[in-house]
Amino acid sequence: MLKSARKQEKDPEGRMPLAAHLRELRNRLLKSVLAIGLVTAVAALYYKDIAHFITGPTLDVVGCPKSAPGGKLPHDHPCAQIYANGLIAPFTIAMKLSLTTGVVLASPVWLYQLWAFLAPGLHSHEKKYALSFVGAGVPLFLGGAYLAYAVLPTTAGALVGLTPDQWSNMFPADDFLDIVTRMVVVFGLAFELPLLLVLLNFGGVLTGRRIMSWWRFMVLGITVFAALATPTGDPLTMSLLAAPIVVLYFGAAGICLFNDRRRKLGNPDAGLDDDEASVLDLTPLDIGEIESVSSGRMLPEQASGENGAGEPPRRGGYDDVT
User: Fold this and answer.
1) Is the pLDDT reported for residue 172 higher than 80?
2) Full-model pTM
3) What is d(CA 169, CA 58) in angstroms, rounded to the nearest whole number?
4) How far apart are CA 188 and CA 115, in angstroms?
5) How far apart are CA 281 and CA 116, in angstroms?
6) pLDDT, tens digit, for every residue of 25-73?
7) DSSP class of residue 70?
8) CA 115, CA 149: separation in Å to the nearest integer?
9) What single string gives the DSSP state of each residue in 134-191?
10) Residue 321 to residues 188, 207, 307, 309, 318, Cα–Cα distance (Å)
11) Is the dihedral angle over the CA atoms 155, 156, 157, 160 positive or is it negative?
12) What's phi and psi for 83, nearest 5 deg?
């Protein structure tokens, strides 16, 4: 059922009809879903430990202490509590936690399946680069997810600190986990943007100079994206998301410029567009000394005018008198 369509076709250039492409896409998606489902099932057995792992740092910063002197909290110590609202809320929370854990921990599998689906359209040297990109994409995705997990307590502390006196904060658990899920996925995918630029450069689609020329628009776009992608919408979280992506963008642009320079050393025409003509050197070359060529000698019968039997006589080596 999961037999690869490419093994059936065995085309050396990776060409397949549309139906085979659709079967291959189905198989890759099914393998990715199975991997995510397997990790999700295992995570469901330990969802309480996962819930404590996710909410623990935030509660350490903004959580209300279980006991306070006199039964009251000081006005300068705003705090918050996380609660489950509704009868089926614990079940919904368990499913969300398990599925989020499955997507994050199964990222090596579905990233590899994505590469395996795109690999036949690449040259042999591009396949080598693409495999290394998959190896770099997993740490970047996990790094973005960890950054979201690390900045969440700081963000929660800044937001809860805005609570007016005599007010209390109550965090619905499902809403809180929605924020965590969105931040983890958004931060992880955002960290893949520089890797995508490097992939396009190594594939010959974009040059490092062109990527670098977009830096003003990229910085603005990353900032707007961070403002829209962060669920909390506060400037602190937005800056914590935008700053690493901007740094990774300039790092990716530097890698692309270095790759273009390396490519140009081996091929002077590497920087030209597909419809741009290369520069031709039309300087005449020295042909050297001229050699004289001696004329061929006439045959004796041509010089004497003798001829074979049945052929017209020759005069001075010619067929007739003219």
Assistant:
1) yes
2) 0.62
3) 13
4) 17
5) 44
6) 888 899 999 999 999 999 999 888 888 888 888 888 887 776 554 445 4
7) G
8) 27
9) HHHHHHHHHHHHHHHHHHHHHHHHHHHTTPPTT--EEEEHHHHHHHHHHHHHHHHHHT
10) 97, 75, 14, 19, 7
11) positive
12) -140, 155
Calpha distance 321→313 (Å, rounded): 9
Task: Give backbone dihedrals phi and psi of 229, rounded to 5 degrees, phi first.
Answer: -85, -30
For residue 123, give the amino acid letter: H
Q: Could you tell me the sign of the dihedral formed by the alpha carbons of 29, 31, 34, 39, in that order? A: negative
- CA separation (Å) from 27 to 45, 102, 259, 291? 28, 19, 34, 72
Distances in Å between the Cα of 184 and the Cα atoms of 137, 228, 267 are: 15, 14, 42
End-to-end CA distance of the chain: 89
Question: Between the CA atoms of 193, 199, 202 and 203, what dihedral angle is there, to the nearest 10 degrees?
Answer: -130
**Cβ neighbours for 156, distance < 8 A, ≥ 6 positions apart:** 58, 61, 62, 80
Q: Of 154, 156, 53, which is closest to residue 105 (Cα–Cα)?
A: 53
Sign of the torsion angle spanned by Cα atoms 224, 225, 226, 229: positive
Please say whether the beta carbons of 160 and 169 come within 8 A.
yes
- pLDDT for 75 equals 47
Calculate the CA 56 to chain-centre distance: 32
Q: pLDDT band at residue 310, thresholds of 50, 70 and 90?
A: low
Which residues, at least 6 apart from 108, have a Cβ–Cβ distance to it below 8 Å? 138
CA distance 99 to 39: 8
- The answer to whether 23 touches 8, Cβ cutoff 8 Å, is no
Of the candidates 230, 235, 151, 140, the residue with the CA atom closest to the CA atom of residue 193: 140
> What are the tokens at 250?
């300039």
**DSSP-assigned letters across all residues of 4-47:** -HHHHH--TT----HHHHHHHHHHHHHHHHHHHHHHHHHHHTTH
Q: How far apart are CA 220 and CA 29, in angstroms?
A: 34
